Amino acid sequence: MVEVLDLRKGAPERLAARMLVVADTDRLATAQPELQQVLGSRMVRSVLVVAMGPDLRLPPALYGETRRVLWVGDPRGIVWGVETGEAASGPGASAEPVLLDLLTQPELFDAVAGALREIPYGTASPGWRIVAGRVDPATLAQVFREVAEIFAAPQQAGPIGSGPPGAIALPVLTGAAELPAAPGDALVAGGRMEGLYQRAAARIDAAERALGALRYFSPAPARAAVLDKVMAAGQALAEFRDAIVRLFQEIDPAEEDTADKLAGHGIKYTVPAGMDDREIVGELRAEVETALAERRSPGRLIARLLALADQSAPIGSAAFILDPGQICPDVLLDVLHEPERFPERPLERWIFWRRSMLRWRTALALGPARVALEGLRAKLGAVAVSEWRLGRARAHASDSARTLADALGELAERVAGTLRRWNAQETGLGAAAPVLAEEVVVRLRDRAGRLREIITGDLHDAVGRWLEPAWISLEQGVYREVRDGLADRVEETLRQYRHHLAHRGVQERPDFATGDTGRQDLIDAVWRQSQQVDRALRAPSGGPMLQLCGDRDLALLLHQAHAVRFAPRAVRGGNAPPGVIWTESGQYAGTLRLVPLRPGAVDDGV
Amino acid sequence: MGSEPLRFFSPEGHEVTWEVEAEPYTDPFERRITTVVDGTRLIERRVPRSEGHDHLYDLLENEARMGARLLALLRRGYPAELPRLIGYNLDVAEPIVLWSDHRGEPVGRYAGRLLLAEQRELAAGLFRAVRILSACGIVHRRIEPGTVRWDGAAVQLTGFGQAALVGDRRTRLGEAPYAAPAQREGHGRVAAADDLWSAAMVVYRTVTGREVSDRPDLGPVPALQPIQDVFSADPPSAAEVLARLRMPDPLQGAPVEPDPGLAEARAAFDRARRLKTGGEPVPQPVSQPVSQPVDRPEPAAPPSPEPPAAPRAWRALPTRWWERRLPLFAAIVLVVLVVALLIRVVS
Lengths: 606, 347
Hints:
- The complex is a heterodimer.
- By secondary structure, chain A is α/β, with parallel strands linked by helices.
- Chain A folds into 3 domains: about 1-130 and about 535-595, no CATH class; about 135-155 and about 395-525, no CATH class; about 180-275 and about 290-390, no CATH class.
- Chain A is about 50% helix and about 10% strand.
- In chain A, a hairpin with a 5-residue loop joins strand 5 (about 80) and strand 6 (about 85-90).
- In chain A, helix 7 runs antiparallel to helix 8.
- The two termini of chain A are about 35 Å apart.
- Chain B is an alpha+beta fold.
- Among the domains of chain B are: about 105-245, Transferase(Phosphotransferase) domain 1 (Transferase(Phosphotransferase), domain 1, Orthogonal Bundle); about 315-345.
- In chain B, the strands form 3 sheets. Chain B has a 6-stranded antiparallel beta sheet, covered by helices on one side.
- In chain B, strand 9 (about 150) and strand 10 (about 155) form a beta hairpin.
- The termini of chain B are far apart.
- The model of chain B is unreliable at about 280-320 (pLDDT under 50).
- Chains A and B meet through helix 11 and helix 17 of A and helix 2 of B.
């Protein structure tokens, strides 16, 4: 971190280890107290002074050889070759902003301060041949607008799918898959419902046995006994059915005492394995992070989460209240309640006994009664699993997915809004500084699509970062806390990202980003393949460069040069010359030349 | 914000003056006021002089009328789902109606964001409101995301300007998807099912966050199973829907009952209204669903901007079957008489 103290604007407010003091030459000559304060502070480790203007005069604090001073006689500069001495007009625009931008990069600050240590009296005139890698405002504005459109895109409903591979809970809870392991019998052995079932089964068995025991000569009381047993079976079956209907009506997993109620009825209420709150949130997290990594648009992700929320919401057992009546219809119970008597007419009783017996067996409907009994038990088991044992898990999945969709909606809205604001800001800015070669700028402009991809990716990663605290809240079931502080986190990250894009460039990965998709391609295409970057990095220090001084100031410079070569660290590697300083900033690459001043050129009291 | 006197009539017909502090009109028809005495916040609905069209006055009067009817019938335990009429002053250049303060925000802003427990409470609250209204013989006719409010825990149904009585002739009102098809077309008689459709549509929209142009597909939303047949040709009643939502009928313990003490005041209100409308006879509803007769001397035809409502003087009274066949009977009797006469002459 380099702290800038611009004496033209005021006194020092903050001190740091690296201090860049900027002053015009007149102000510098009288800045003894301020410089003493800076140089005398234990917080300050290194001071670099940039003196702007003609006739460099130094205050006593800068006497001696430990000073580090860059003298910019004329910030518009002049093209000058140290070896040949030939000079030509420069571009005519002030290079001061670019110089200060360069020197506020810690790596370059240290390198320049180190180079000045080698120069007599630590004073030199800066010059350069550098290439700018800033995305021009029009391109950036266009990219911001396009990314804003991606984040503001409406929800796109699609098939619910099965989620990321390995997901177990979500497919089950949304009804897309069965439980991986059989849920086991829903009825507790010896429990009330099991008892009702067993009694009905036993009575049907007894009726069938009694019916099976009838013989040709069996007396009328034996046949009457069959009828009694059939009626008893029908009564037990009706009781079982009615108990199920009442249960379906009565049980609501949202109520606190559901477990007690179910236990009272002899129904198991254990949550199947793999369906606890943490596992459900884990799968949702995998789902969201996969979508963000695949750079799916927030609109699609929100639609997917809302579909998950809808599909996993429990229906409630009351929705199945008519099913028992369809499985075991009243008609069947009526038949069992008033069973048909065995035909007692002589012809049917004695001559066609066998046929009458078969017909009577069918009419007694004990077979359908058994089918109905098993069907009722199966229905009870299925509803017990889907609506009661999985009820809380389904509600948790639904509420979590909906909460996430809501938070994502807010994030997308805020990102889109901020990008639209940035778009408006960039639209009002001018083109890049004309003092620098623009090949990289042009290359960046030609790759606006790649820029969009990178910025979209960064913001997807930011969304993932913003949601980090949400996962704990969801695991704990405190859904409304998910949005707590979200707006502030988004605001702060986007502010940092804006600064990052302005000062470090798009080729440098921001702190919150996890991926480099497209970034390396952009660096290769824009920086590594640039002839101008290569030439600027390899420029001979004695060759023609823009020297930041006036025509008359050239006479005060020695025909020697020290070079500091630098480039963004993102382009490290390749065929860069040795000794290059790699900077965090992605804005500039090239050679900074430091030309020592002739002895006596500086009024330093000597 | 300085205080100012507010003169109005209480629902019982007493003239009242309160000192209030009023917020500026953010909406030309509505502002929030606070009583100086106890800080109670109220909503003042008005028709600004500049906007003064007859149908707007009618809407405001209708609000007052419906509010008074609800108060009269729901004296025991006024439901939280409905705003309470505080007073009115209709015989002034800028007539006003005062309601208890709004609760929460219009439910539209919660679309797709409610948790399951909230969804259930929203649905229950809304269907409770519809159930209570229908028991009072009122059909709101404008249940939509703008008139349903939600405060995070409970529902409030506002905006009674277009409300009508069950059995009134339907006028065209509203658009898809919130207005029921029959209401959009203006066929038949106003029925509680109109509100049921609208309430179910608001629930669908709020729960799913999805826009629909007409009947929604509830298949992908199992949680909305209790309202799945509301959009069918044979819809359930609000009480049935509440039962499916496992909610008790709000009228089980406190049935609606008329307040005879208010009859005189309401009669005065209606007399004043008749005078104002030039003695125009006010039509009677075709049917009165409340078991005990509610003293509503003449329900206003629900005003509607599109198309213009039928003249208020016209109101089809029910004709008995024999009245419809009377000409036929007369013709038959005449023929029989003629034939008998001919037979007698010939013989």
